[in-house]
Amino acid sequence: MIQWISRMLVPLIVSYIVGFGLLSRRPVFDDFLAGAKDGMQTVIGILPTLIGLMTAVGVLRASGFLDTLSGWLAVPAAWLHLPAPLIPLTLIRLISNSAATGLMLDIFSRYGPDSLLGMSASVMMSSTETVFYCISIYFGSVHITKTRYVLPGALLATAAGIAASIYFVFFTN
Amino acid sequence: MLNYLWGIMILTGMLWGVANNNLEVVTQSLLESAGEAVTLSLTMIGIMSFWNGILEVGNRAGLIAWLAGKLNPVLSFLFPELERDHPARLPIAVNIVANMLGLGMAATPAGLEAMKLLQQERPPGCDLHRATDPMCTFLIINISSLQLVPVSMIAYRNQYGSADPAAILGLALLATSCSTLVAVIFCKLMGARRRAAKR
Questions:
Q1: Could you tell me if residue A148 is inside a domain?
Q2: Which residues of B touch A95 (CB under 8 A)?
Q3: CA distance B150 to A97
Q4: In this structure, is residue A34 part of a structural domain?
């Protein structure tokens, strides 16, 4: 069932949208080209960020720091039933999407994207958001300082996403 | 935030390299990672442009507005405080739909607009720096991640040699549903607790 969803989701959405566009009598290919051009500019726009953060993670990896960190985190990781290399990823994920992407790509190149670690990192990144960044952007824009139960709620939802990612990946593979 | 984070990452790596006496490897890795980022972006251009193009077709055909309209019953359930003609309902719906489709660029402006309207439309005389229940619910649901198809993730996995890059889609959908479900239950409980306290 889960594999079926994985296989069907992209074709389904693509054909649904193109069909919707045709039925609405839109020039679908012209619209596609305009969007694709924007997408291209977005990727090029994030290239400097990616270079900066991938080099930073590369330096941390090569210096041996990430291995040492995983060693330190082995005890809390065992207690939380988390694989140790996922802990830095989880923490950074709360603050910065691009820095977390850098760490995730490091996990990909070390353990492979199809390893249990690579899979849980992929699913976890896909089912969580940059908690602190989002709160500061949204509440900052309207000068809210008393955030009440937003932080506990957001962290709880994120924890549920992380737990579900790891549980489902290790359970179904 | 990122300024400190990045600075600390670079300096920690360098100092750790000095301490472990492996600065050559560190320099080597620095050069390789920079190149790797460029290769990655080049291959990402393909899939990201395609997906963005498809989403733009939906956007221009009015798909977001249409789906946002369908969301009314969901909004009434999530935001019992907002009457049917509340101006913030539309941007909230657009934000949720855009997030589900992975249209971050359309989601954020709509989300900020919703926040602004929620702020303007509150009863006079209350603390303007204190978040209201609809604001909290909106933000928590938003942060619980709603994205149905994490396209950039497929692109990353593909680039790093995954045999089946899309294999995570089903699991990601499941995990996202879990986090959103927890978010909804949490917000409902908090809302119920506040109403009970008021009585």
A1: yes
A2: 1-2, 5
A3: 13
A4: no
Q: Report CB contact under 8 Å: B38, A51.
A: yes
B 118-157 near A (Cβ less than 8 A): 118-119, 127-131, 135-136, 139-140, 142-145, 147-150, 153-154, 156-157
pLDDT digits (tens, 9 = 90+) for B121-163: 887 778 889 999 999 999 999 999 899 888 889 999 999 999 9
* pLDDT computed for residue B1 by the predictor: 67
Q: pLDDT grade, residue A50 (50/70/90)?
A: confident
Q: Is the pLDDT of residue B198 over 80?
A: no
The tokens describing A140, both together, are 């900052």
Collapsing DSSP to helix, strand or coil, A138 comes out as helix
Domain span including residue A159: 51-172
| ipTM (interface pTM) | 0.88
Interchain CB contact of B164 with A (< 8 Å)? yes
For chain B, domain boundaries = 1-44, 62-198
Give dist(CA A60, CA B187) in Å, integer.
39
Q: Does A69 touch chain B (CB under 8 A)?
A: no
CA–CA gap between residue A59 and residue B8 (Å, rounded): 11
Is residue A44 situated within a structural domain?
A: no
Nearest 10 degrees: Cα torsion B91, B96, B98, B103: 120
pLDDT above 80: residue A99: yes
